[in-house]
């Protein structure tokens, strides 16, 4: 599904990625952990062609990432932004329909009945059926992020890249967004690669965790194998055992995606 081979990214003299390699299988839910400036966002942007690696190779579904194949890859890959990146003066429906532009020519921006139907289905999936015609600037932060996710879903991506999707949200709202991504992964079979700062979310939702520090992958393990030593390798002395977030084991207390929208 995703093959990354020795990618490096330099901004001037600053080396951000220093030979990153990994494979991600179809249907996996993986999380990238790391401190600020470790290279997490740059990695995801390279995977979607928003940022071109200085060297190395990226293959998405047997298609090599290059300028020629960029549009083909972007039709298969959805990107959820840290800053949400929705248009406030447009309605929920209008924002979500822009997700259909990924498969259109610049001169063809007409949305047909089928595309509008898919947009409605995506909006319902993220729990905003009663907000279809509401302007996005009237929504809460969590609802805005759901609009961003619906916009991604409308073009049926095989892969979703989420760049710190809950960083600006409170813990309860963030929990709901992570549950939504889990729902998409499990029910639709969509591969999810998500950047996070929250260790507890990574342990709760991911099956696999990459730890990045200073442009290198420090560990690549199943969640059950992650130790305090691993976490200290990416967070250093700022991570102490007594400060370790409590894992959320009881899923019965979580908010329902179907009925609770924040």
From TrEMBL:
Residues 2-239 form the ABC transporter domain. It holds the Pfam family ABC_tran. This is Phosphonate transport system ATP-binding protein. One of its GO terms (molecular function) is ABC-type phosphonate transporter activity. InterPro entries: AAA+_ATPase (IPR003593), ABC_transporter-like_ATP-bd (IPR003439), ABC_transporter-like_CS (IPR017871), ABC_transpr_PhnC (IPR012693), MetN_ABC_transporter-like (IPR050086), P-loop_NTPase (IPR027417). Keywords: ATP-binding, Cell membrane, Membrane, Nucleotide-binding, Phosphonate transport, Translocase, Transport. One of its GO terms (cellular component) is membrane. It comes from the Bacteria. It comes from Halanaerobium congolense. NCBIfam families: ABC_phnC (TIGR02315). Signal peptide: none annotated. CDD domains: ABC_PhnC_transporter. PANTHER family: AMINO ACID IMPORT ATP-BINDING PROTEIN, PHOSPHONATES IMPORT ATP-BINDING PROTEIN PHNC. SMART domains: AAA (SM00382).
């Amino acid at each position: 599904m995703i093959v990354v081979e020795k990618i490096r990214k330099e901004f001037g003299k600053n080396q951000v990625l220093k030979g990153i390699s990994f494979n991600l299988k179809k249907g996996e839910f993986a999380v990238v952990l790391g401190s600020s400036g470790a290279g997490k966002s740059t990695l995801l942007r390279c995977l979607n062609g928003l940022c071109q690696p200085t060297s190395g190779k990226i293959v998405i579904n047997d298609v090599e990432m290059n300028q020629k194949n960029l549009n083909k890859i972007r039709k298969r890959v959805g990107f959820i932004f840290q800053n949400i990146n929705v248009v406030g003066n447009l309605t929920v429906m209008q924002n979500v329909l822009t997700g259909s532009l990924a498969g259109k020519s610049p001169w063809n921006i007409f949305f047909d009945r089928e595309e509008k139907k898919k947009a409605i289905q995506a909006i319902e999936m993220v729990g905003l059926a009663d907000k279809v015609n509401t302007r996005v600037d009237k929504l809460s932060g969590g609802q805005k992020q759901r609009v961003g996710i619906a916009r991604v879903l409308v073009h049926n991506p095989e892969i979703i890249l989420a760049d710190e999707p809950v960083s600006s949200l409170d813990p309860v709202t963030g929990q709901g967004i992570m549950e939504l991504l889990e729902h998409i992964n499990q029910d639709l079979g969509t591969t999810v690669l998500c950047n996070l700062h929250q260790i507890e979310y990574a342990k709760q939702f991911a099956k696999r965790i990459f730890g990045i520090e200073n442009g290198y992958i420090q560990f690549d393990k199943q969640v059950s194998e992650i130790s305090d030593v691993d976490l200290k390798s990416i967070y250093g002395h700022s991570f102490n055992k007594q400060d370790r977030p409590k894992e959320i084991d009881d899923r019965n207390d979580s908010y329902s995606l179907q009925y609770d929208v924040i």
